Amino acid sequence: MTKYERLADAVHESEVMYIRTTSERIPAHSMRIDDDYGIFFNEGAFETTAERRIALAHEKAHCDTGAVYSDYVPLITKSICENRAWRRTITDVVKMEEIREVFSKCIYADGLDIYELAEKLDVTPEFAKMAIEHYHNRGERW
């Protein structure tokens, strides 16, 4: 079972409603209705499994942390919710120990190959950079 399949199973087993959609404009979106959370998700809108996995983990993080918002809230509220969800996404998807393990295998004489790191972690290169920055800002050392 792939990491994406395990994540999808976890979402289906949680109390979060999972609604498949075909929306191309908004391929992934989480929302709250009363005390329930739901994720609208278009699996076909993502090119790679890593992209799909990150998007689903991010929407799940919105639900898990309660960091959902409507289009009508101030930008600062959206920013706070997004930052909270991204921090949770990082810690859910890539543990520091996993980065350390893979990190040591990706260093060459000319530096770190972020693309190889991302591939080994099954994430996008952008997400791998975000995770490294997140853990670095928390004071973690390799």
Structure description:
The radius of gyration is 16 Å and the shape is globular. Helix content is 55%, strand content 14%. It has 142 residues and is of the alpha+beta class. It has a three-stranded mixed sheet with strand order 1-3-2. It has a two-stranded antiparallel sheet with strand order 4-5. Helix 1 runs parallel beside helix 2 (49-65), helix 2 (49-65) packs across helix 3 (75-93) and helix 5 crosses helix 6 (125-137). The model has no long low-confidence stretch (mean pLDDT 91). The chain has helices at 3-13, 49-65, 75-93, 96-105, 114-121, 125-137, and strands at residues 17-20, 28-33, 36-41, 107-108, 111-112. The protein has two domains: 1-93, Zincin-like, CATH 3.30.2010; 94-142. The protein contains six helices and five strands, in the order αβββαααββαα.
Write down the overall geometry.
Answer: globular
How many DSSP H or I helices?
A: 6
* CATH structural architecture of the largest domain: 2-Layer Sandwich
What's the gyration radius in Å? 16 Å
Ends: how far apart? 29 Å
**What order do the helices and strands follow?**
HEEEHHHEEHH
Widest beta sheet: strand line-up: 1-3-2
The tally of structural domains comes to 2
Number of strands: 5
Strand content: 5-15%
Mean pLDDT: 91
Helix percentage:
40-55%
* Helix-strand makeup class: alpha+beta
CATH class value of the largest domain: Alpha Beta
The CATH topology label of the largest domain is Zincin-like
| Major sheet attributes | 3 strands, mixed
- The unreliable regions are none
